[in-house]
Design a protein that fits this description.
This protein is an alpha/beta fold and 281 residues long. Helix 2 packs across helix 3. 22% of the residues are buried. The chain has two domains: 219 residues, no CATH class; 54 residues, no CATH class. Helix content is 32%, strand content 21%. The chain is globular, with a radius of gyration of 23 Å. The two termini are 33 Å apart.
Amino acid sequence: MQNIEDYKFLYQDEKYFYLYKHVRFSEGSLCIIQDGTLSFTPPSKFNDPFDCLFNIDDDYNYTTNELRDLHARYGCKRLSAAKRLQANQKFKWQQKIGISDGSFFLKFHQRTGVCCLNHNPLEILMWSHYADNHKGFLLEFKFPKSSLKYKTVLKDFIPVPVSYSKDMPTLSKEDKFCLNNSEIAKKIYLTKHESWAYEEEFRVVSNDMEQPIQSYPRDELLCSVILGVKMLPENQERIKNLLKQLLIEVPLYRAEMVEGKYGITVPNHPRLNVLALNKKK
């Protein structure tokens, strides 16, 4: 799995690295600005049906001897070896059915939510897929490089880069008894098929799905808002007014199509003004 310390950030300066979120114009997305809240999505709601799925190694299941010890621990000492074997086979069969119909993963993920960010703000497809065909907007967040000292995935608002692979992750018995839950979370929630690599995704994983809408440190992280090239004028005004009401200054920009090329630029933006940056090279 890729560590954030090893990630080659394109958008960074001496103090910060920058991540982004493309969103459609909606009351929920406006709350990211107005209320300082973000939505954590259960894996079952993702647009990729393979996301957060995993294989289970043959050694993941209990052996007959392990079942015997478990039965003894919970007061079922009188079960014969044949009964224990039958119970194990039944468990494997139920697990196989659950994997086939998806119920196993629904139960596995029931307490987990994911907030998705990315490091590819000017990608045309990202604006098309996640920002309502360029009618939405882009949020830019700055993360202090000092925050890299935090190693955990499941505490605080710490983004972790997604790894891309042609192979689905596999859980083994070693994972089953692993005391480091963050390592298992990385394996399951931070691995996607390699066809998604262009997104350069980062994720914040939460174990508290009783609160799918969660606060984030807006005043420290939110550093700019970029309007899509096709955003309606009335929606532009709504966002302008929201930003004026904040106690912090968050600059507002508007994306533009690069003339004569397939590309997006953000005039006057310190990191996303492609035309100005190209002139400096």
